[in-house]
Amino acid sequence: MSNILLQAENISKYYYLGDQKIMVLGNVSLTVNRGEFVVIAGSSGSGKTTLLSVLSGLDRPSIGRIHMAGRDITDLTEDQLAPVRNTLTGFVFQAFHLIPSLNAIENVMFPAELKKDPEARNKAQSLLDQVGLQDRGKNFPEQLSGGEQQRIAICRALINDPEIVFADEPTGNLDSENSEGIIQLLVDLHKDRKITLVIATHSQSLASRADRIVRLHDGRIQEG
Ligand SMILES: Nc1ncnc2c1ncn2[C@@H]1O[C@H](COP(=O)(O)OP(=O)(O)OP(=O)(O)O)[C@@H](O)[C@H]1O
Ligand SMILES: [Mg+2]
Question: Which residues line ligand 1 (CB under 6 A)?
Answer without folding.
Answer: 15, 22, 24, 42, 44-50
